[in-house]
């Protein structure tokens, strides 16, 4: 029998699959609910949320859902199901709001995907288990905290250089959301994982204080 946490994760995955499939077959539906700066600033705030359940294709969907499946139980089993849901949806919105802030002068910028929410869950897992071993390129083991810092730095660089068809701002915002919400929900991490909290916080603080300068260079 599936554990309750697995059922909750499964429900989120099924919701993503069903909504994304609808978007695959119905462009009007995709266009109505995707993230788009001009529409959101025009009052369609629901797009900040609904865009997190849409994906551009099967590969995009499968990758996000696989990563969610791998990391979700780390968070749900330690913090509980309610906290898992708070981190998931809080990170989704954090990714959307950060994207909106970063791309506010690009009215036609649009995006879809659960990457912000998934990034938040990954970052939460790393905070809870900083010494977890992750496989880089499916072969090279690296500690979780090294991955976390590298991921943030790559996202910052990707935003600046606009690398690929990837919503780096949503990834980054979601990671920040997962980081902050996990510490709020389990503040004991400040004392038991102090070094790792500081390491993961440094690039976030640099971004928050100097992020407005990214587009100037």
TrEMBL record:
Provide a GO biological process annotation: proteolysis
**Acyltransferase among the record's keywords?**
no
Q: Which UniProt keywords apply?
A: Hydrolase, Membrane, Protease, Transmembrane, Transmembrane helix
| Top EC group | hydrolase
GO MF annotation: an example: peptidase activity
Q: Which Gene3D superfamilies match?
A: Rhomboid-like
Any idea where this protein resides? Answer: Membrane
Transmembrane stretches in the record are 6-25, 46-71, 83-101, 135-154, 166-184, 190-210
Would the keyword Signal turn up in this protein's UniProt record? Answer: no
Q: Which PANTHER family match?
A: PRESENILIN-ASSOCIATED RHOMBOID-LIKE PROTEIN, MITOCHONDRIAL, RHOMBOID PROTEASE
Q: Which family does it belong to?
A: Belongs to the peptidase S54 family.
Q: What protein name does the entry list?
A: Rhomboid family intramembrane serine protease
**Species assigned in the record:** Polaribacter marinivivus
Q: Source organism lineage?
A: Bacteria, Pseudomonadati, Bacteroidota, Flavobacteriia, Flavobacteriales
């Amino acid at each position: 029998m599936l554990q309750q946490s697995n059922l909750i994760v499964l429900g989120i995955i099924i919701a993503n699959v069903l909504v994304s499939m609808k978007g695959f077959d119905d462009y009007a539906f995709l266009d109505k609910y995707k993230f788009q700066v001009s529409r959101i600033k025009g009052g369609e705030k629901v797009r900040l949320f609904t865009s997190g359940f849409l994906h551009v294709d099967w590969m995009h969907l499968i990758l996000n859902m696989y990563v969610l499946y791998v990391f979700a139980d780390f968070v749900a089993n330690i913090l509980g199901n309610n906290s898992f849901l708070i981190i998931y949806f809080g990170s989704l919105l954090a990714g959307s709001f950060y994207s909106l802030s970063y791309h506010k002068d690009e009215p036609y910028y649009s995006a879809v995907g659960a990457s912000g929410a998934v990034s938040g869950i990954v970052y939460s897992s790393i905070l809870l288990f900083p010494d977890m071993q992750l496989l880089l390129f499916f072969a090279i083991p690296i500690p979780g905290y090294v991955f976390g810092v590298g991921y943030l730095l790559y996202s910052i660089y990707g935003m600046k250089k606009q690398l690929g068809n990837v919503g780096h701002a949503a990834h980054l915002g979601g990671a920040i959301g997962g980081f902050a919400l996990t510490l709020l929900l389990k503040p004991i991490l400040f004392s038991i994982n102090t070094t790792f909290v500081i390491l993961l916080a440094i690039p976030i603080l640099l971004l928050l204080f100097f992020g407005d300068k990214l587009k100037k260079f």
